[in-house]
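Design a sequence for this backbone.
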């Protein structure tokens, strides 16, 4: 019985409209309902002790959806000044539309302060029914009494009330939870079945052969990940966007039923499954910077002739982008965040994130372990192909990966969490400043990681720094995203 769904109260809101009010609303509801019954979104979950537990119980099911409507809810626009609500990809619209379609979900508009309830004709067809639902006003001035009315309403809601009845407040021990759930019939729970998890599954990205065995979650627009997700889950927010792998730092038992994250620095994040490709990078329309250093250290004259389109060797669309500096990468991220409606969510990985993801729980960044001759199964390294005809520079690995320069991304086996080419192919820019510079947007040196096709990988892969405004034809990047 403990696996049966709970009836949740889901709070739908627009960040730019009512993030603060939604947060306060969630906090207050958690005083009257079991905290885990109230779901805001993944960003609201404390990355500390209980987040994995919380995620597992996440937005699997809900009985009530509260639609928080503030002054900017109706007219909020994207960067191209198009009204968000008019886009079928707008996740607030999708949440509401899906909730309204389900007769077992109580949808309650929560209108903030002096905001007017929108007129039906101002709303897209699929959410017009929202205006026929009983709305409640939530005002700063009468906040407590307004909340009390809402709590009363929710308690009368069969799904929510049944779940809350007799439930202890605060974290619920597993045993107690199972006992409480067992008092309710399976049929009863079925009636309050999932509402929003369907949003996630409805937009499933087509499975690709390389993804077999993984759960792929599509999150259109700036939609947060609602499903209880886990390390290794993959999502992609737009056709040109990088595929992302979810990484949830593990939670370890510390005795007495307490849990804590194994790495207190890391919050759940997502990281590119592959290095960013040329096709993905050029989709952003970023300016192409002229001048690019070669791994072999060529003349300055030759260096000036190179750029990302002509790095000094043949590349196709699915090769990693190279010859890009930090400023150009930032332009790419500006585009990617705008393209997905994410507010500064996409960025370079931090050093801690990158190494955590590259090690994939194995304690070693080399997926091939200690058997160097197996490196060519997992990575484009300085192999016998690259070393051919260079007696003064023997191969770093006694195997053949078939590539002298960069290889198309994803040609080699992934690491344990499904990431390709973390080691080798092209080295990857990270967000951390290098050479002891304090962390800032504008530091002169950045850490790069993973080594590249022309290097032994062993010694320099971890702590190498590169000049932030230098372009190299062996340095690219992969993206990270806040969750
Ligand atoms: Ca190679
Ligand atoms: Ca790499």
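Sequence:
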């Amino acid at each position: 019985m403990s696996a049966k769904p709970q009836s949740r109260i889901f709070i739908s809101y627009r960040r730019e409209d009512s993030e603060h009010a939604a947060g306060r609303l969630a906090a207050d509801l958690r005083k009257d309902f079991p905290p885990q019954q109230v779901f805001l979104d993944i960003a609201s979950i404390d990355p500390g002790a209980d987040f994995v537990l919380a995620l597992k119980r996440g937005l699997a099911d809900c009985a009530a959806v509260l639609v928080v409507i503030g002054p900017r809810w109706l007219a909020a626009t994207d960067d191209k000044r198009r009204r968000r609500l008019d886009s079928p990809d707008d996740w607030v619209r999708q949440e509401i539309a899906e909730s309204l379609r389900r007769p077992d979900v109580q949808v309650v508009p929560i209108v903030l302060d002096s905001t007017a309830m929108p007129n039906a004709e101002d709303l897209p067809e699929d959410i017009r029914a929202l205006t026929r639902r009983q709305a409640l006003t939530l005002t700063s001035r009468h906040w407590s009494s307004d909340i009390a009315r809402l709590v009363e309403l929710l308690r009368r809601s069969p799904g929510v009330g049944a779940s809350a009845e007799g439930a202890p407040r605060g974290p619920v021990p597993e045993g107690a939870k199972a006992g409480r759930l067992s008092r309710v019939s399976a049929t009863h729970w079925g009636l309050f079945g999932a509402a929003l998890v369907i949003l996630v599954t409805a937009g499933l990205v087509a499975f690709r052969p390389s993804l077999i065995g993984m759960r792929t979650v599509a999150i259109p627009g700036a939609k947060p990940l609602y499903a209880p997700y886990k390390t290794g889950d993959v999502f992609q927010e737009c056709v040109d966007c990088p595929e992302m792998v979810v990484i949830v730092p593990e939670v370890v038992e510390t005795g007495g039923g307490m849990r804590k994250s194994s790495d207190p620095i890391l919050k759940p994040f997502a990281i590119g499954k592959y290095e960013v490709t040329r096709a993905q990078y050029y989709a952003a329309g970023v300016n192409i910077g002229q001048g690019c250093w070669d791994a072999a250290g060529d003349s300055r004259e030759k260096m000036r002739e190179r750029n990302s389109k002509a790095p000094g060797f043949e590349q196709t669309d699915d090769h990693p982008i190279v010859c890009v500096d930090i400023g150009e990468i930032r332009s790419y991220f500006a585009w990617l965040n705008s393209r997905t409606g994410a507010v500064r969510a996409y960025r370079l990985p931090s050093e801690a994130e990158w190494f955590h993801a590259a090690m994939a729980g194995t304690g070693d960044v080399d997926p091939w372990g200690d058997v160097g001759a197996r490196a060519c199964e997992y990575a484009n390294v300085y192999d016998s192909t690259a070393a051919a005809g260079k007696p003064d520079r023997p191969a770093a690995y006694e195997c053949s990966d078939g590539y002298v320069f960069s290889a198309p991304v994803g040609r080699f086996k992934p690491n344990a969490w499904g990431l390709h080419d973390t080691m080798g192919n092209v080295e990857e820019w990270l967000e951390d400043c290098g050479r002891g510079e304090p962390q800032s947007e504008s530091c002169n040196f950045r850490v790069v990681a993973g080594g590249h096709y022309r290097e032994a990988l062993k010694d320099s892969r971890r702590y190498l720094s590169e000049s932030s405004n230098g372009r190299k034809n062996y340095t690219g990047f992969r993206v990270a995203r806040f969750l």
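Residues 380-381, 383, 385-386, 401, 403, 453 surround calcium ion (ligand 1) (CB under 6 Å).
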